[in-house]
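Subject: Protein entry, chain in single-letter code together with its fold tokens

Category: Structural biology, sequence-to-fold work with a learned token vocabulary.

Notation: Tokens come from a learned vocabulary of local backbone shapes, not from coordinates.

Start of record: The labelled sequence and token lines come straight after this line.
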Amino acid sequence: MFSQDVNQTNFEEQVMAASFKQPVVIDFWAPWCAPCKVLKPLLEKLAEEYAGKFLLAKVNSDENPDISAQFAVRGIPAVKAVVNGKVVDEFTGALPEGQVRAWLDKIIPSPAEEMRHAAQQRFAADDVDGALQQLAEASALDPSNEWVRVDSAEILLAQGKADEALQLLESVRDVTIQKDDRVLQLVAQARVAEMAAGGEDEASLSAAIVANANDLEARLKLANVLVAKNRAEEGMDQLLEIVRRDRSFRDDIGRKTLLDVFNLLGGSGELVKDYRRKLAGLLN
């Protein structure tokens, strides 16, 4: 069954939870609403025709005012698409069938997106080779889908292939994707892992710094080793020292690497705020 009546009792299961598996279209309607009598049967017909590519949840707004309020429904018919628990698109009023189809096609995953999700499931099941193969097929099917590259980079990074992961991440051209928190963290993780993979251990790098406090190359390597060991605070102290001693070193790499670590730590939180203040103090 591809459409059903939904109320307060089953809304969480049939809409919010279900939206993590496929798009859910909520149709807010009422028996007295004339346009609803046109749109509701059309949506029911399309739900059957699309055969599970989306689920139709029909909500009587008169009987379920709390749900209507939750979704800020001010007029009906109101149609909202929910994906992964969030409203991603909506319209109000009875649209012609062609416009409704075009709207549905925007929210339904493309074949490449479906391959992406399947690859994510394979990776979660530890089928790394299968996941990468499926992502390669998705990329061939839709080269413009740059999220495929991000997913591939994440898998490569988990395999310890930081250089390959970074190449993929740096090939992304969509600015919105570049600024996504997940992508910023992956880029930072890849850079730190790549720089920490030089083969020198913590003890030898620390000894080099004791012997020569101005050995900024050793400080940089030690910082990345420490961050890679989840000792971010110690690593950031070394990076701050590089900024303090010579901002021009390797084209201001101390500051740039600090920004990467901030992204790696999620870009916020007390620790990041504290070190942002310390960095700002050095730059003033």
Summary: The radius of gyration is 26 Å.
